[in-house]
Amino acid sequence: MPEAIARLLTRRPLILGTRQSPLAMAQARETAQRLRDAYHLPDDAITLLPVVASGDRVQDRALRDLGGKALWTRELDRALVDGEIDFAVHSMKDVETIRPDMFHVAAMLPRADVRDVLLGADSIDAIPHGAVFGTSSPRRAAQMQSLRADVKITLFRGNVATRIAKLAQGEADITLLAAAGLARLDMQEVGTPLETDSWLPAASQGAIGLEALHANTDICRFLTGVAHRETMQCVAAERAFLNALQGDCHSPVSALATYEGGMITLRGELYSEDGSKKVAGTTQFQASDDKNPAMLAAELLERADPAIAQLFGSA
Hints:
The structure is a single chain. This protein is of the alpha/beta class and about 325 residues long. Helix content is about 35%, strand content about 25%. The protein is built from eleven helices and 13 strands. The chain has helices spanning about 5-10, 20-40, 55, 70-80, 140-145, 160-170, 180-185, 215-225, 230-245, 290-305, 305-310, and strands at about 15-20, 45-50, 85-90, 105-110, 115-120, 130-135, 150-155, 175-180, 190-195, 210-215, 255-260, 265-270, 280-285. Strands 2-1-3-10-4 form a five-stranded mixed beta sheet, with helices on both faces. Strands 7-6-8-5-9 form a five-stranded mixed beta sheet, with helices on both faces. Strands 11-12-13 form a three-stranded antiparallel beta sheet. A hairpin with a 6-residue loop joins strand 12 and strand 13. Helix 9 runs parallel beside helix 10 (about 290-305). The radius of gyration is 20 Å and the shape is globular.
């Protein structure tokens, strides 16, 4: 263990900041245990500090009406700046594409299952005609209506348990949840996973990121002890694709990068809000190439129907 990290660990317990939702707490506990295992640390070397995120406080409006993805990071950002926590754990799909320079995602854990899971029906084809689909995701709404234009959309927010309860209470007929989140809550048996050859997930889905202040080099170095290189390369490609699109919370877009033999394959799909229009593409490139994601974004926007292009900043 480098001397600087050894000194860091002898001063006091390190404080890991997390949202206090059950899923976020599960991710934080996994993160803390991976770090303890990597450095052979006692249980009390890392403690958790839960915070209530803005996005968890308001459940009756869509995120795009509340300020977008910053609602999941704002409180943890403040805690980092104020020195209340040493590092934070995030679901990477909830992290803004462009972050302030003072913050640094120093590591990502090995990526979990990237798929979406359908609840309320055994398949997309088996969804009853005119069913109500509960979601707060423009991507999921557009993807569903692209395949099933008869399906109606209703706002569905809340943590995993809340959304499952709303479904059971009849507020919607079907919904979608992330397979990774269900697995982290030990609910793998719930629903039907949708395969990525026909249903692309959100960019960064299934990835957990560990973030610290860029200037806190000792902490950043400490976090790299659990960094999974292939996950970080794939998520970086997906986020670069989003960044080039200049989309926001209104923009229905899905993306998935996979790694094999030093090559990354990146697939992307853009939709109109109602799912009636779609454009898709794929690119393959060396993992060290940071230009291809933007090239794919430009290609898709060039081919996109105006109903799609208007949803992105490059239109």
